[in-house]
Design a protein that fits this description.
Immunoglobulin-like; about 20% helix; alpha+beta; 4-stranded mixed β-sheet; 3 helices
């Protein structure tokens, strides 16, 4: 099947194409760098980053990060997390095969392919429920609940 007919190939081929496009954009590397810098004690982030609404937003408050494991046996651990706006969530692949993170609701985001022992992050700026899955293993589902304190 030619690459140009992705819309006829169904949603899985479409999402794989989005993963490839995201990998080429360099956006995941920017987010990982941002989270790494913000992880220092007392560090603040003052830059423009993509948010859950898909628009850049300046952040100047201390950044919080919550970890989710892409665990063995095809699961996200914990499956459901609750965070405040301004929190970055980092998914780390602790499995023996590659996965990704694709939002089904709340945001238009699909991570790059997350290889074994690698991570991907997303900064949540607005309250809401964000359902996500692994495109390659659609039975792997999780949820981020962003609530105001």
């Amino acid at each position: 099947m030619p690459f140009g007919s992705l819309t006829d190939a169904g949603p899985r081929a479409y999402h794989v194409a989005r993963v490839v496009a995201c990998m080429r954009s360099g956006l995941p590397a920017l987010l990982l760098t941002l989270v790494a810098v913000a992880g220092c004690a007392g560090a603040t982030v003052s830059t423009s980053v993509p948010t859950a609404t898909g628009t850049p937003a300046a952040t100047s408050t201390p950044a919080a990060t919550v970890q989710v494991s892409i665990a063995k046996y095809y699961r996200f651990d914990p499956k459901v997390i609750q965070v405040n706006p301004g929190t970055a969530v980092t998914w780390t692949n602790d499995d023996i095969i590659a996965h990704d993170v694709h939002f089904l609701s709340g945001a238009d985001f699909t991570s790059e392919v997350v290889k074994v022992r690698e991570s991907t992050s997303y900064l949540f700026s607005k309250p809401g429920n964000y359902l996500y899955e692994c495109v390659f293993h659609p039975n792997m589902k999780g949820e981020v609940q962003v609530v105001t304190p």
